[in-house]
Design a protein that fits this description.
alpha/beta, seven-stranded parallel sheet, two-stranded parallel sheet, 17% strand
């Protein structure tokens, strides 16, 4: 049986991926920066690389993602790719973000190139904006003010459910059908934030609306929430790309890989309505 190391296992996608793999009878080992470990966890700190060698003991497949809160993703991920090569890992699935390949000099793209040139069998998945952002990162405005606050205007995004991203990653980890390919992952349709607000309203019985804000207001909110300045600037930049229309594109990758159509935002709001129910 394969033993799969999941880097980013506590995150939105990684936690879902761990459950899917276990349901398929796969042995998944969850990497964590903590030192007090559960039976299916192993210590690994991406920032200082502590635990790196031990984390790869008896590992033959690897899932890793571009870590949130950091802008030097290539520096953090390169040692993992090197270790995967050293340990002759059979398959690596890297998750970055849709648009990461637009500029070869960007840190995310540098991490992708590192993997592409490693000689390892790989897949790169680039999901669009997560639906789950509305029940995590943007939830304070929704629950406190009945508002979705973002500097994106009327632009649309083909939001994707993290459960579908995890399903894609699980399939790619255990199959060689799509080796050495990259995929942009999206939901089924582009929606603007007014539409998303109306769907949350329908699911919860509340009246939620979208309010466009300035990039500066967004920046101040991110900094007040404790995000590092460089990462806050990174988020402002990619929200700017959203506003320019770059997130509206759709692909058929989820269905192509998993055999299932991606979930709609409407289904997501029904499934997660308790997050916004006061």
């Amino acid at each position: 049986m394969s033993q799969i190391l999941i880097v980013g296992a506590s995150g939105t996608v990684g936690s879902q991926l761990s459950e899917i793999l276990k349901s398929k009878g796969q042995k998944a080992l969850r990497a964590t920066s903590k030192t007090t470990l559960e039976s299916d966890q192993v210590h690994l700190n991406l920032v200082n690389q502590s635990g790196l060698e031990k984390a790869f003991e008896n590992i033959d497949r690897l899932f890793l993602l571009s870590p949130p809160g950091h802008t030097n993703q290539n520096e953090l991920l390169a040692p993992l790719v090197d270790m995967a090569k050293k340990k002759n890992v059979k398959k690596v699935v890297l998750m970055t973000a849709m648009g990461a390949n637009a500029v070869d000099t960007s840190p995310m793209r540098q991490a992708e190139i590192k993997l592409e040139k490693s000689g390892l069998k790989y897949n790169i998945i680039r999901p669009n904006w997560f639906m789950q952002n509305f029940n995590t990162f943007w939830i304070q405005g929704i629950n406190n003010d009945n508002k979705i606050y973002l500097p994106v205007g009327k632009a649309k995004g083909s939001f994707i459910d993290a459960r579908d991203i995890a399903a894609v990653a699980a399939e790619l980890l255990v199959s060689h059908k799509f080796d050495n390919q990259d995929f942009d992952l999206t939901g089924p349709e582009p929606l603007d934030h007014d539409h998303v607000a109306s769907l949350i309203s329908q699911a919860t019985g509340r009246t939620i609306t979208f309010q466009d804000i300035t990039p500066e207001a967004m920046r101040q909110g991110l900094l007040q929430a404790g995000l590092p300045k460089d990462y806050s600037e990174f988020l402002i930049t990619i929200l700017g790309f959203f506003k320019e229309g770059y997130s509206a594109r759709t692909t058929d990758a989820v269905e192509k890989i998993t055999g299932n159509k991606p979930r709609t935002v409407k289904q997501y709001t029904i499934d997660y309505k308790s997050a916004w129910t006061k």
